[in-house]
């Protein structure tokens, strides 16, 4: 399997287009034609992580935080350039799965939830995606032909069902002009024709192909159809929400330290309050504060600053800062997802601790 095939496989499940627009995901370093000798999953890509891959005979690293993000002006022996040079010198391929992995239904926040024993998890802030609806008017005898051609390009796919159409019968009427070349009817006379209205949905990227099919397969010189684009709830989004057995914030915070294996957490709010519902946004999720307030008894994220903590207090939202590094659980979580897809390939979760903070 080469990198191109690997990317196709993983992005089929965790698509690149679900990443935030400001992000930088996909193959950051390497060559798509390189054969994959093994995969190392990591939160951050550092020189130590690259050395770990080399020692393991692995040439592909999948990191969560993109090594190449913004502001890299030189690739020299200092700073991030040094890491990039180290990867290239040893022919290490680097793939970033950042906000696309965050937004995946079973992504980073879900993985943290699983680690802390959160039950009945669902997406906290569901994204919306676009869908197109086609209504097309076809003479009765041509209905199956048009539906078949549309099905072949992926129109009428809803979840696990293909060939989804609704047809209703009616009468179309039209008057061809003197210069028209009508399939039925006479120039200058109103014509009535038994027609079917065919309704179906399709992904917006198919729009041009749909129009091509209509032009090529529909018998009329000027087919009548409408395409509407609308928003639908997506199967991906930010964060997770679920439940735990009822306990005090103090007990819950203690348990977080144990289950996440971290030395401390910071609690904002009443330690004696009771919690049973929990929302999580892995990494730095406090920018979603207004959208998550009151969704759950307690909100978990990392990187909460002093004034943001005051904002949370003002809003009455109990929150616990579990540190950005709590995202490290994605190493094992992503390893399991990829190993499941590729049982033949050696997949290892990095054992390198890339937390820049040391607690004393
Ligand atoms: Zn992060």
From TrEMBL:
Q: Which NCBIfam families match?
A: YbgI_SA1388 (TIGR00486)
Which branch of life, at top level?
Bacteria
Q: Which InterPro entries does the entry mention?
A: DUF34/NIF3 (IPR002678), DUF34/NIF3_bac (IPR017221), DUF34/NIF3_sf (IPR036069), N-reg_PII/ATP_PRibTrfase_C (IPR015867)
This chain's source organism reads Macrococcus armenti
Locate the transmembrane regions by residue number. none
Query: Cross-referenced PANTHER family, in alphabetical order?
Result: GTP CYCLOHYDROLASE 1 TYPE 2 HOMOLOG (PTHR13799:SF14), NGG1 INTERACTING FACTOR 3 (PTHR13799)
The family line of this record is: Belongs to the GTP cyclohydrolase I type 2/NIF3 family.
Per UniProt, the keywords (alphabetical) are: Metal-binding
* Pfam families linked: DUF34_NIF3 (PF01784)
Would you tell me the protein name for this molecule?
GTP cyclohydrolase 1 type 2 homolog
């Amino acid at each position: 399997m080469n990198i191109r095939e690997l990317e196709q496989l993983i992005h089929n499940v965790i698509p690149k287009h679900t990443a935030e627009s400001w992000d930088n995901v996909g193959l950051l370093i390497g060559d798509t034609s390189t054969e994959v000798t093994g995969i190392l999953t990591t939160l951050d890509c550092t020189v130590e992580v690259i050395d770990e891959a080399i020692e393991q005979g692995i040439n592909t690293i999948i990191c969560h935080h993109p090594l190449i993000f913004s502001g890299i002006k030189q690739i020299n022996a200092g700073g991030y350039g040094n890491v990039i040079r180290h990867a290239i010198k040893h022919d290490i391929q680097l793939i970033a799965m950042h906000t696309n992995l965050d937004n995946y239904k079973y992504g980073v926040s879900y993985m943290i939830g699983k680690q802390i024993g959160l039950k009945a998890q669902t997406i906290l802030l569901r994204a919306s995606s676009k869908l197109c609806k086609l209504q097309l008017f076809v003479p009765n005898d041509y209905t199956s032909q048009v539906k078949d051609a549309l099905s072949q390009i992926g129109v009428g796919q809803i979840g696990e069902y293909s060939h989804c159409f609704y047809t209703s019968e009616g009468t179309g009427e039209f008057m061809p002009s003197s210069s028209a070349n009508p399939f039925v009817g006479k120039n200058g006379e109103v014509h009535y024709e038994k027609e079917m209205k065919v309704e179906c949905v399709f992904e917006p990227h198919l729009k041009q192909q749909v129009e091509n099919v209509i032009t090529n397969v529909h018998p009329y010189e000027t087919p009548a159809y409408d395409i509407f684009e609308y928003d639908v709830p997506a199967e991906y989004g930010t964060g997770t929400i679920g439940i735990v057995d009822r306990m005090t914030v103090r007990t819950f915070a203690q348990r977080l330290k144990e289950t996440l294996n971290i030395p401390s957490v910071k609690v904002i709010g009443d330690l004696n309050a009771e919690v049973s519902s929990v929302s999580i946004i892995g990494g730095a999720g406090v920018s979603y504060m207004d959208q998550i307030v009151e969704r759950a008894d307690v909100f978990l994220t990392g990187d909460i600053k002093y004034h943001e903590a005051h904002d949370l207090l003002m809003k009455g939202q109990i929150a616990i800062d579990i540190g950005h590094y709590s995202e490290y659980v994605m190493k094992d979580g992503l390893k399991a997802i990829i190993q499941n897809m590729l049982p033949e390939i050696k997949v290892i979760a990095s054992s390198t601790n890339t937390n820049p903070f040391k607690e004393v």
